[in-house]
Each structure stands twice: as C-alpha cells, then as structure tokens.
Amino acid sequence: MSKETVNSLGALVSLGGVLWGLSWIMTPSQQGDNSQVELWASAVFQLGLLALLAVMWTSRATGTSRTARGLLAAEVVAVILALAWTVPYLFDANRPTTGVLVVLDAFWPLSMAGLIVIGVLVARAARWPTPLRYFPLVAALLIPVDIAVSGAPDEVRNAVMGVYLAVSYGLLGVGIVVNSEQLQSQENAQVGAR
After folding, report:
1. Domain segments of the chain: what residues?
2. 42-67 residue pLDDT tens
C-alpha cells in the first residue's frame, strides 16, 4: 500500500467521523424517525471504518498472531454486514426493519463493540507510533460514551456524541495521514520478512 493510499484512507477515516458527528448535531435521527442525512453520513463513517481496518491490516497494527489477525478479519466482516443494513435505509430512512434486516441490524452494535477489542489489540501490539496507537481505542469508546449520556436530554446527548465522533475519528484519520510513511514502512518490513 503506497503512502498516498494510506493518506487517502486516513482522510476517509476523518471525513466519515466528522460527517457523522456533524449529522448527529445538526440532523439527528430520533426514536421512530430516522434522518436521511444522518444515515448517509453513517454510511460514509462505515466506509471510513473499512479504510481504517485496511490500514490496520496492511500495517499489522493488531499484531502478527493468528488470533490478532482473525479478530481483525472478523471486525471487517461485522462492519461490512452493518453497512449492508445501512444500504436500504439510504433510500428509505424509515422503512420497517424486517426479514434479513433484523439480523443485519445486530451488526451495528457488534461492530462498534468489536472496535473496542481491536483498539485494545492495536494499543498492546505497539506497532503504530505513540500516540497514534491509542487513538483507535479512544475512538472506539463511542458505546461507553453513548451509555454515559443516554439519560441526558436528546440535545445534550446528540451534541456529546457528535463532538466525540468528529473529534476522535477526525484525529485518528489525521494521525494516520501524519504517520503514513511510518505505517507504509511497517507494511514493507512485513513483506520483506516473508
């Protein structure tokens, strides 16, 4: 993966986080009334997650063990299935969740919880430079942040979630871009070791 590709993927991580964060603040979905804008922004966010996972895969960010690689691969599958749930809602934001969509709907929280596991693996493997190696875990703590503000009024919850998304994933993407040369050299070192 070239430095330019790593830069592009890092930019997509930032773009997805910032867009979804802003949509939480400006046009949030409400219980029983999904926002078409927020759903489109969430799709960009999910594409950003796939970009993040691609950089992690090529740089061996979670480590080189079979377990670490397997967990990363499982997370890729979970994000793809969550994205598959999103696609039909891009065109009908309030369609009923029936049939296969019920199963796919479960992959939203599963993929977000899986990001916490991946974040821990990246921090422990210490293959990414400091402080970047901690950014995936901080960004992945979105679920605990959501739980912490779940009792707050909708305006407060949406503002906190939006700012957290925009800042954490925005900085994660910028960190990837800033460290793209080092991340790309990680990949080259792995190729040379084979």
Report:
1. 3-193
2. 999 999 999 999 999 999 999 999 99
